[in-house]
Every structure is written in C-alpha cells, then in structure tokens.
Amino acid sequence: MSKLINLQTLNLYRCSSLQKLPWDMSKIVDLQYLTLDDCHSLTSMPYGLGQLTDLRKLSLFVVGKRDRKNDALRELNRLNELRGRLEIKLLGNEESVNLGGANLEEKQYLESLWSLLLLDVNDLESLPELVQRVHSLAEMDITGSLRLNSQLPQCIRFLSSLEKLTIGGCDPLDLQFDDNDDDCQWQDLKNLRHLIFDRVEDMEYLPKWINHITTLQHLTIPSCGSLMWLPERMILDKLEIILCPQLEERYGNNKGVEWPSITFKLIYRWIQLEGQYQGS
User: Angle at Cα 99 formed by Cα 117 and Cα 113, nearest 5°?
Assistant: First the structure.
C-alpha cells in the first residue's frame, strides 16, 4: 500500500471477511476517504492512522482486544477533517477506557458519532463521561460489560438522538431501577425505536421504565432464560422472543396461558415465537 502515495479514495464497503487493514496505511498521506461500512470482522486499526490528517471520511474505527485502548483512541485525535458519520467499536479487555483521547469535541465537521459499540469491556462500571455529551449518538451496544452498574439511567438520559439500544450479557446490571426519578429519565429518549435485551440471564421481568419510552416500536428479547412476564400497556410494531422458554410457554400462540393478553390486552402487530412470526 505504501506505493500508492497518491491514493485518495479506498472503498472497502461490505468486505465482511476483512480482519485487518494494511499495516503501512499511514504512508498513504493523501488518503481522504476510507469507507469501512459493514466490515464486521475488522479487529483493529493499523498503527499510525492518525497521521492521515487529510482524512475526511472514516466510517468505522475499531479498537482491538490487544490494543492499548487509550493509545488507539488517540489515533483519532488529529483527524479533525472528518465529516459525515463515525462508528466506534471497542472490543474488550481489562484496560479502562477514556474516550476523551479521541478528541471528538474538536471535530467541527463531523456530522455525528452515530454508533458506539462496547463489546466485552469487562472493567466498564459506568458509561464514559464523554458519551453524555455526544448528542448525535443514534446506536449503542453494551454487551458483555460485566461490571456495569446502575449508573446507566443517569448517563443515558442525555442521549436524546438514540434510536437503537442493545444491552447484553450484563447480568449484574440492575435493570429495574426502583427510584421513580430513574424511571422518568427514560422519557428523555424521544427517538428510541428499537430496544434489545440479549442474554440477560438473571432478568425475570422486563424493566417497568419501558412504558416510559413512548417512541418504542421494536422490542427484541433473545436468550433471556429467566424472563417470565411481559409488561402491560405496550404498543409495538414488532416483538421478537427468541430462545426464551418461559416466555414461549406463557405466550405461545393458542396454547400459552397468557396468549389472550397478547391478542387483546396488548397491541402487537407482529409476534415472533420459536423463529416464526405470528400475527396478532
């Protein structure tokens, strides 16, 4: 790649098997557009990417499991010409995370940090402070962050543009939030449309604050084996229940004891049970 010194555009859209970028990309000093949309297998970014100060488009930035997290994020520090939308994906290890090194607040041309994925960041006890100030965030995935505590509602209320939220594999996280103030803070999520609870094994009831999210359209619940009940007074376009045996037993079409509550008490347009869609 170092011989392509005049290259300005590199489009790797939907290279789904791509795991690494060329190590010498920092030598392509004229590069302005690097498209990495749907490169889901990418595990890290090459060292020295921060030297490409003319870069205007970088759709995805991955911090790998073996990277020193804060050093890797500092690669974004000098990329102040970035425009459009940026997704940051952190693949976990035991190191603490400071998003401040990315210097997002100084990127005046960046339209939005639209997606933040925190995957298996084991030492994450609360959302980074910077997240509270990124009002453009549209998608957030918090999966496998085993130490995440009940500060979630206090942090998440600032994410007024959030459209999709995934919470997965965070069993110690108290999702009920008995404090009424915590419940009401979810009303500030005026754009949240899709909520996913994935592998939250200790959850027996869905949080009551779900009823405060009036914009919610799509609820997905995969592999929550302890979950027994769905809340009342919910209006959804789509409900997915996948590998939740107790829910399937209670709400299964024409056989579960709570099936009438699905068809009459609740207004669900689509129910997915056991991998098949059932109309309500």
Answer: 55
The answer, as to whether pTM is greater than 0.70, is: yes
The answer to whether 191 and 163 have CB atoms below 8 angstroms apart is: yes
What span, in angstroms and rounded, lies between the C-alpha atoms of 14 and 36?
7
Measured over the CA atoms of residue 246, residue 247, residue 251 and residue 253, the dihedral's sign is negative
At 101, is the secondary structure helix, strand, or coil? helix
Q: pLDDT for 88-142, tens place per residue?
A: 888 875 555 666 678 877 788 887 777 888 777 666 666 666 566 667 788 888 8
The kind and range of the H/E element at 240 are strand 238-242
Q: Torsions phi, psi of 263, nearest 5? A: -85, -25
Residue-by-residue DSSP string for 126-149: S--GGGGG-TT--EEEEES-TT--
Contact at 8 Å (CB) between 128 and 156?
A: no
Q: Which residues contact 195 (CB under 8 A, 6 or more apart)?
A: 164, 165, 210, 213, 216, 218, 219, 220
Q: In what order do the strands lie in the sheet with 238-242?
A: 60-63, 84-91, 110-119, 139-143, 164-168, 194-198, 218-222, 238-242, 270-273, 276-279
Neighbours of 112 (CB within 10 A): 16
Give the pairing type, strands 276-279 and 270-273: antiparallel
Could you tell me which residues come within 8 angstroms of residue 268 by beta carbon, excluding any fewer than 6 positions away?
234, 236, 238, 239, 262, 280
Q: Dihedral sign, CA of 28, 53, 84, 45?
A: positive
Q: Is beta strand 238-242 parallel, antiparallel or unpaired with respect to 110-119?
A: unpaired
